[in-house]
Amino acid sequence: MGTNELCVIYLAGGCFWGTQRYFDCLAGVVRTEVGYANGSTKNPTYEQVKHENTGHAETVKVEYDPEKISLTELLEQYYKVIDPVSVNRQGGDIGVQYRTGIYYTDPAQKPVIDASLSKLQKQYSVPLAVEALPLSNFYTAEEYHQKYLEKNPGGYCHISPTMFEAAQKYVWQKQQ
Q1: Looking at 7, 15, 25, 157, which residue is catalytic?
Q2: Which terminus of the chain, N or C, has fewer Cβ atoms within 10 Å?
Q3: How far apart are CA 25 and CA 63, in angstroms?
Q4: CA separation for the pair 21, 103 (Å, rounded)
């Protein structure tokens, strides 16, 4: 990785409003965008994803600086705000669009993701429900969904506000 070269990972963790807010709090995350990933419908709307079985997952595109936060560390932070053994459900949100998933575009990320999930699996006696797949598609969600909880501070979120505070205080300690 050259200096200032950003990496991208796509993370599905239930309702994307809170998931985006959480990643926006982490040092090293440069930009986020919410959208719909790995479904069968081209350019779906929120209503289609919610009601028409498009197969998309509500997903956050996370652009990050690997000099400030590693993919391994980013995934460890992601696991703190999902229930990794829950199938098609996070908090009160139920449906395939709320599944958990790690979607990558760089094949070099796959071994890091696999090692991270393997480490996480050791904490559970049941199989993880987190998908780890190449990104097949990503469609940006409507503008009103972008940074939703910043625009609507009292808006619904399945992630506890204390997690946002913890994320803001979190600093990755680079291994030398």
Answers
A1: 15
A2: C
A3: 13
A4: 19
Alpha carbons within 13 A on the beta-carbon side of 148: 19
Does the annotation count 7 as an active-site position?
A: no
Predicted confidence band of residue 161 (pLDDT cuts 50, 70, 90)? confident
pLDDT in tens, 102-118: 999 999 999 999 999 99
Tens-digit pLDDT profile for residues 45-61: 999 999 999 999 999 99
Residue 46, CA distances (Å) to 2, 40, 137, 144 in order? 37, 14, 15, 10
Pinpoint the alpha helices (H) of 87-155. 109-121, 148-151
DSSP 170: -
> Exposed/middle/buried for 3, CB within 10 Å: 0-12, 13-18, 19+?
exposed
Q: What is the DSSP letter of 9?
A: E
Q: How far is residue 97 CA from its own chain's centroid?
A: 13
User: Please, are residues 69 and 28 in contact by the beta-carbon 8 Å criterion?
Assistant: yes
* Other CB atoms within 10 Å distance of the CB of residue 128: 17
CA dihedral 24, 113, 162, 95 (to 10 degrees): 90
Nearest-angstrom CA–CA distance, 11 and 2: 24
